[in-house]
Design brief:
Layout lengths: L5 E7 L5 H7 L2 H11 L4 E8 L1 H12 L7 E7 L4 E8 H11 L3 H16 L8 H17 L10 H5 L1
Length: 159
């Protein structure tokens, strides 16, 4: 199966520790994660930011005054997906450490998560939507060779 075309702009804000995040996010890795999550052609910008910028964007656009791991600003779904994904480096790093996951593995999950949001998936609308989105994320990440981000084993998912 051919993966959809992707026009990608990958941006890193200037902040302490940015080198670790650049190393975890080579352009080819980011593109691969996103393309596996896309159902159609896309133009995406991925921006890696510090806590201050992440908090400002979350507060100004979602009314939530804290830095979150990923924000998706979706502009179009058809004929192609157009969106900005903003990932907050300190939040992503702290979560990866807490979950005892490699930084790149957590970024893979959040890139897929953000790309699904850009295509209209929403886990906040209902429990059924959340379960469907989590299942889709798990399937995509498995195709990328990444483990289930929700920590379920294959046996538990089948039960």
């Amino acid at each position: 199966m051919a993966l959809p075309p992707l026009t990608l702009s990958l941006q890193f804000a200037r902040f302490d520790g940015v080198a670790e995040h650049r190393a975890a996010l080579p352009r080819a890795f980011v593109a691969r994660c996103l393309r596996h999550a896309l159902d159609r052609e896309a133009e995406l910008t991925v921006r890696i930011v510090d806590a201050e910028e992440g908090q400002t964007l979350n507060r100004d656009y979602r009314g939530r005054d804290y830095a979150t791991n990923v924000l998706t600003f979706d502009y179009a779904v058809e004929p192609l997906v157009m969106a900005d994904l903003v990932l907050c480096a300190p939040v992503v790093a702290a979560e990866a450490k807490q979950m005892k996951k490699p930084l790149a593995a957590h970024y893979a999950h959040l890139l897929v998560h953000g790309a699904l949001h850009a295509q209209g998936w929403d886990h906040e609308t209902s429990e059924a939507d959340a379960e469907a989105m989590e299942a889709r994320e798990t399937t995509i990440l498995a195709a990328l060779g990444e483990p289930d981000p929700y920590g379920r084993s294959r046996r538990a998912r089948k039960a």
